[in-house]
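Morning run. Coffee first, then this:
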Amino acid sequence: MILRRAWCCSVGRLASLTRSKNSAQKCNRAHHERLFSTDSINDLVAHHKIIRSTVPCPSSVPALDPSRVFTNSELRLTDIEIIGFDYDYTLAPYTQALEDTIFNMIIEGLVSSRHYPSSLSELKYDPNFLSRGVHFDILTGTFMKVDAYNRIQSESVHQCFRQLPEEEILRRYPGKRLFFSVHGDSKRFRQIVDIFQIPELYAWCSVLNYLQSTQNSPHPVLVYEDIKNVTTELHVQGTLHSHIMANIGSYLEPNTRLVDMLEMLRREKKQLFILTNSPYEFVNVGMKHIMGPDWRKLFDVVVCLSKKPKFFEDKYRVFRRLTSHNTPAYGEVKEFREGEVYCEGNVRDLHRLTGWDPCNILYFGDQMYADLAEPVLNQGWHTGAIIRELEDEIGLQNTPEYQLNMHLLKELNYLIREVQRFLPDPTAVHYTEQWCTERKQVRAELRTLHKSPFCSTFRTHLMPTHFYRRLSRFAEIYTSDLTNLAQYNPSHYRFTPNRSDLPHEIH
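And here it is:
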């Protein structure tokens, strides 16, 4: 920013020479005239020519390591004595094949038990269309991305697979804003916050699109409810878990890095526990495949069927010990015994039975509302989120095409902001419109670099997404894979966030 820097330096030198009140007033008048002179528009135009003719060297932009742990709030590992983990998509990072399987099971269930057309079996799953953070309208079958202030990003709005024009968006959603609870949900508007939801919602999108194309006039709410019921049956009846256990090698891979990391934490005197909603039989098969038959020795406490977030909210759900037959015992749990597995329970009794101080607990999960919101907001736990989407997103940010377009976008934002100081001058109006058009083109170019039409999980054009806003509130640290934690000394490292300037602070 040659012109901007030179101007700032000249103002700094001028201010340093000002000593008296009168000269300070003269300086302020000169500064005001500088900002609002015709020459300043010419300076902005000249700067525009520079950024359009100069391509930033890719090597000058440092690549971002996708295996980093990122920080929202300062966290000292010295203070952490107990570390807990969710199972699904935290300790157990499933392969892409699981989403394909869930999609196919849902379609099969619709055909066999809900008597949908057998031709639905020809539908194929696309893992790149939907992502976490996308909101959807169950009344209309519309998908959209929403920013931190509940504003809809127009380019993201799709009726199934069809992108909606601006006029139709405004007709459906006046003001292009949604209204829902703090959890991002309402009876009409929902948000994809769980990876298990992605194939479920893609099935809804695909089935709606297919039925509409065959003129069957499906009602989006009824199709949504049928798919929701079929999916619930897959979990409640154990069909999905049984299939995964029978084909565990297709969905999970052995992970020596995870074993090494957990052993390192044990050597550093950290106590480890598992808190999951999954049944123990299912967890045991997966953990044996990932870590080997002796995986239990690495954990002080294992709690299954915890029913989070109720585990953190209901103070009267007591713990039950699992017998050797994997059935809950009826005797009172007065202490946690080594080698035993427990189910149900509540967070208050967890603290009481273990003697753990909530302020010394760090818990990792992938689902922000079920795993992280209640512990960090109301229980005093520290929290870490496993966000697998980071790997692809950071990989894209490291490409020259992305960096060039992002450089242009930032500079155009600066020019648009500065040239509007001269409105309603006709020249300022002209360049405001011209640069806004250019910015729209750059944004369109950036969208083509993403696999999904909803683009970034974490950002709209200028604002964080609704998803990231909640992530920054509920997770003190976040990373793409649990084993990334192994890079940091567990007894001494301090995670410190970057200090970002507020809008009213000097940049």
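The first strand starts at residue 70 and ends at 71. Good start to the day.
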